[in-house]
């Protein structure tokens, strides 16, 4: 699936991934390929991204909003 992480200043990440773990306001949750459509607010925490090569990257955020639909995940964040 395709992931974009965007802050007001720049695009932080844009690539194909296998999973992303997000700090939801009521707890962490993970999105995988073919996930049901979802929109969620995000709390202060860490986003964990695993790309198709198995490389894991982390992003610290203060807050944000995530939307997943049709194997595309868009995350708008404040750092």
The gist of it:
The chain is an all-beta fold. It contains no helices and 8 strands. Helices cover 0% and strands 72% of the residues.
Describe this protein with a few key phrases.
single chain, 79 residues, ATP Synthase, domain 1, globular
Describe this structure in words.
- The structure is a single chain.
- The chain has 79 residues and is mainly beta.
- It is built from no helices and 8 strands.
- The protein has one domain (2-78): F0F1 ATP synthase delta/epsilon subunit, N-terminal (ATP Synthase, domain 1), CATH 2.60.15.
- Strands 1, 2, 3, 4, 5, 6, 7 and 8 form an 8-stranded mixed sheet that branches.
In percent, how much strand structure appears in the residues?
A: over 45%
CATH topology label: ATP Synthase, domain 1
Q: Work out the count of structural domains.
A: 1
What is the N-to-C order of secondary-structure elements (H for helix, E for strand)?
EEEEEEEE
How many angstroms does the end-to-end distance come to?
24 Å
**Per the principal axes of the C-alpha atoms, what is the gross shape?**
globular
Class per helix and strand makeup: mainly beta
For the record, the CATH class is Mainly Beta
Q: What's the tally of helices?
A: 0
Radius of gyration: 11 Å
Helical residue percent band:
under 10%
Largest sheet: 8 strands, mixed
Poorly predicted runs: none
The total strand number stands at 8
The name of the CATH superfamily reads: F0F1 ATP synthase delta/epsilon subunit, N-terminal
Query: What is the correct CATH architecture?
Result: Sandwich
Rounded mean pLDDT is 97
């Amino acid at each position: 699936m395709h992931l974009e992480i965007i802050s007001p200043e720049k695009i932080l990440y844009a690539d194909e991934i296998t999973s992303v773990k997000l700090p939801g306001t009521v707890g962490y949750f993970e999105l995988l390929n073919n996930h049901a459509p979802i929109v969620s607010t995000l709390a202060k925490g860490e986003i964990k991204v695993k790309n198709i090569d198995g490389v894991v990257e982390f992003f610290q955020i203060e807050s944000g909003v995530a939307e997943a639909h049709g194997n595309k995940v868009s995350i708008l964040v404040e750092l």
